[in-house]
Amino acid sequence: MEDILSISQELSRGLFVTVSILIASSLLAYFMGFISGLLRLSKYTLVRKLTGFYIEVFRGTSLIVQLFWLYYAIPMLFGIPLGSNWIIGVIAIGLNYGAYLSEVVRGSVEAVDNGQTEAAIALNMSSYQKMRYIILPQAIRMMLPEFGNYTIQMLKGTALVSLISLNDILYYGNILRSSNLSQAPLIYLVILIFYFVLALPLIFLTRKAEDISKKGVAN
Amino acid sequence: MTKPIVEYKDVHKSFGDVEVLKGIDLDIFPAEKIAVIGPSGSGKTTIIRMLMTLEEPTDGDIIVDGKNLWKMEKNGKMVEADEKHLREIRGDIGMVFQHFNLFPHMTILENCMTAPIHVKGENKKEVKQRSIDMLERVGLGDKINNYPSQLSGGQKQRVAMARALVMRPKIMLFDEVTSALDPELVGEVLEVIRDIAKNDDMAMVLVTHEMDFALDVADKVLFLDDGVIAEQGSASDVIEHSENPRVQEFLSRFRG
């Protein structure tokens, strides 16, 4: 019991990095998801193609390799320093999950019944007004559960930043294990519990979101 | 003689290889009530959907209040209309749909208020009062804060009419508005349309399968068959006294 407490104490030093990266990268991912999801629906082929390229590259390659690209390769190749490790972690996770979320956004917008668009036209709305007042409010309800699921995945994805020497929960766990090999099973058990407890509110919010999304949508 | 508010000039419409409308010429006069009847697949709905800018004609012109709906002048040439041009013209036109198409995330009062406020930029308080009045007129004054999902089909369709009327259109289009309703709910919707037809001075075009209703409300009836207007005239001329065998065959299916 005492061991668990002392392990928890050590791990909690990484809590701030894990949570702050989660929050910042989800905000970036939501932003990218919305922008690129809507651009995918643009009437301009070039815009659709370029956005599609971003999405497929980031969905089609592994997050950890993207992280290493941003951390090692790009600064070396182009001499562009991308900022602190924290910023690089946020960019990699945010862009990666933004690509997934953009498909959620696009899919939800397309899933709103076409009759809604026709009613908006019959009321003489502009494309913008139609999107803003009719389509998006309904599409967002449909998106909520998937946004919740991807946020939970992002929480787990943040563990990768320990590999670019960011001091998150897993990083402190690994340090602890290397100085105390016999405790490895216990250490990793406590780490699992840490992530699970962090995920609990997200799981709860996702359930709520599912309830909301069941109401008030025409499809 | 008054000028027509809408003119169709040799309008054609194809979907892929299928030509649905094969040259429609039609004048709609202010305050005129027109019923469009005919077998399904004859292109009835397409006629009014083109006027609402939901479908673009393949060929021909639709003139609204002297202005070409689907074409505009640019650098001395006639080009395809852009959204701005369409919006300038279609503001005078309203439509009620077969499947209501109410906005499910808004109360029925908000359904009525959103377009006058956001599209026309009207005063919110005034719009609210007008919307409430209109909902009372269609018999839903006690439901203004309900959501569409809480209403019956007939009630939804009455909301849809109030929503269109609040925009004060000069032309109202009705696309088989009773076809999706349970039989016992048809009456309440027709009652509201009858009231509008008798008391409002806008032009109305009704695509309908309700012959008795067409006879009662319409000044003019068009019989559409195979993409052309096969017969037109006063309601009693077409529905009661037509000698066109296609019309008789079509109507005999309703008389049973």
TrEMBL record, chain A:
Gene3D superfamilies: MetI-like
Any one of the GO CC terms: ATP-binding cassette (ABC) transporter complex
Swiss-Prot/TrEMBL GO biological process terms: amino acid transport
Keywords associated with the record: Amino-acid transport, Cell membrane, Membrane, Transmembrane, Transmembrane helix, Transport
Protein name: Ectoine/hydroxyectoine ABC transporter permease subunit EhuC
Membrane topology: Multi-pass membrane protein
Subcellular location: Cell membrane
Keyword Membrane carried by entry: yes
TM annotation in the entry: 15-41, 53-72, 78-98, 147-166, 186-205
Pfam families (UniProt xref): BPD_transp_1
Assigned protein family: Belongs to the binding-protein-dependent transport system permease family.
A GO molecular function held by the record: transmembrane transporter activity
Start and end residues of each ABC transmembrane type-1 domain: 15-204
UniProtKB/TrEMBL annotation, chain B:
Listed PANTHER family: AMINO ACID IMPORT ATP-BINDING PROTEIN, GLUTAMATE_ASPARTATE IMPORT ATP-BINDING PROTEIN GLTL
Domain ABC transporter: start-end pairs: 6-251
Coiled coil location: none
UniProt GO cellular component terms: plasma membrane
Keyword Cell wall biogenesis/degradation: no
Sequence intervals crossing the membrane: none
Alphabetic keyword roster: Amino-acid transport, ATP-binding, Cell membrane, Membrane, Nucleotide-binding, Transport
Protein name: Ectoine/hydroxyectoine ABC transporter ATP-binding protein EhuA
